[in-house]
Amino acid sequence: xxxxxxxxxxxxxxxxxxxxxxxxxxxxxEFLFDDIVAILENKxxxxxxxxxxxxxxxxxxxxxxxxxxxxxxxxxxxxxxxxSYIVAGRFDExxxxxxxxxxxxxxxVLVLPVARALLAGMxxxxxxxxxxxxxxxxxHPVHTDAVSSIVSRGELLGALMFQLSLLxxxxxxxxxxxxxxxxxxxxxxxxxxxxxxxxxVLLSGVGMLCKEQAVTVLAVEAAFxxxxxxxxxxxxx
Length: 237
Known about the structure:
Blueprint: H1 4-9, H2 11-21, H3 34-40, H4 51-54, H5 75-88, H6 93-118, H7 125-139, H8 144-148, H9 153-173, H10 183-208, H11 216-232
């Protein structure tokens, strides 16, 4: 029987393996539906297109100033498609799908530290809870379209930046469990918190350049801040 100690020791490879293995059947899927418009027919994906053009067009390759533009500004996702094209040398379905599957594996693994940080009040039990939360996240069917549909890579990249931003924010909020013993260390601690907070804001911006919904991480961080303040004041308004 597999013990909790074994799961805790190998939690990262286990979660990554679970998250990727269940989507191996997507690797040989074809370009379908929106994949054709956003990738195959999008000139911005081709390396022959000037790089600055990517930042002037929407996700579907239309000029942002055009009245027909979708106004979805996701240049980093388009650049990831371009990188996939450059690496494969062509529109290779296997390579494009493999990137999505690997990204899902990474995002699932990041649930581990996020869950542990958010469940800090549970004490040692948070480690087991975080593992099961990450495993559930990895296999939950709500992610099917985001992983199996190549065009949905923006959701995976946005989720990656979301979690990295949240981890930086949590690091800024809880740099140490001990009170600073001196003014100098207190100043250094404040500078460190500002550093991590800056990274949290930067990564949220990067996430928004992958997909707009990544902006929600700022709302999550704000809500967390309110909860922390209420908790510090004993729940007083």
